[in-house]
Amino acid sequence: MLQDTTVTRQPILSRNMKVTGYQLLLHSTNQNDKPNMDTLKAVHEQHDLPSLIGSAKLFLPFEEIDLTVELIDLYPNTKDVVIEIDAHIIGNAVQLKTLKTLRQSGAFLLLKNYQPNEACNKVVSACQLAKIDTKAFNKEQLLEMIHYLHDKSIQVIADTVEDENEFSYLHSLGFNYFQGFFFTKPTISHGKKLSANKISILQLLAKVNNEDTDFDELATIISHDVALSHKLLTSINHPSMNLPKQVTSIVEAIRYMGMKRLKLWVNMALMSSMDDKPDALMETSLIRAKFCELLADHSHHETEKNSFFLVGLFSTLGAYFDLPQSEVLDDLPLADNLKRAMTDYEGALGKALWIIKQFENPYSDLLMSLSYEDMDIMSISDDYLSATRWGHDTLAGI
User: Looking at domain 5-184, does it have CATH number 1.10.580.10?
Assistant: First the structure.
């Protein structure tokens, strides 16, 4: 466990809602200490940086982490690294020399907090990307900046995008990438009618998570759904399962799973089958689920691990169905305390969900003061990183 530093990451998505990278931020428990290369090395040694971001690009703030050329040895594939810099770096010869070395090794450069002034325009000419605080400018100013940067073959990132409405607006202006967890906050249309496909998925979720649904009923549900059956056979025969022989029938596949594992798999398969939602939403669901489960396991709620997991997993259902979370939950046979945890953050279950949402906001002022029963922030942070790795690995196997 890291002794004095928490790590958070925030996704950066493309125009078609695919994850292109993650910004990694380090937070010291001591406000007087600044993260540096030694801190980043410790994170890498304990958690393996590539496992935290998968095949996406790693976005690192240059001065906030005090990066050095040692990054080349720490992260050999520097073509997958984006270094975020400020405009005032132009006055620091030592830092410019470091950046030149990192750039020559293959790293990309990004000017953050771009503004239409002489200093920014001078620095951005050496960058491949620029990031804009969209809330600081009106529509005409944003369009002018985007056109200026695109004319110079510089791609533009919209920073801190808060919801899908804002995403749609910024998408229409021509931004290339979008940073934030906006995909968990859908555009809500009250009275909206669900498509036949989503109604079917919601009905299946209700059946799967009904306590009265037994193993045979669950097997029947899967067998009668061609897409689910195909996914199950593909998943069970994945090399990571390391089975002695190929499984060719649904009955045989189901035998390899217990009830708990089978229900989890069906839930994930149903949620991920919604083609209009990004993989980032499914990954967020999985990370929340595993994080809540780990908190339960490491506090005084070991016997409630399944409930904690389900609260995390289903906390994004509103985003999947583009409905208020409470409306979706009304159609599911879940205990009232689970529903209140997801809508009002009530009880130990609700607090666990609230905490993981603080980690999704890397600029939260509350992050370093978090605790959970007898767990301190460093224990919680360790669970967050473990859940992040598990979520990525699990999504890859769906």
Answer: no
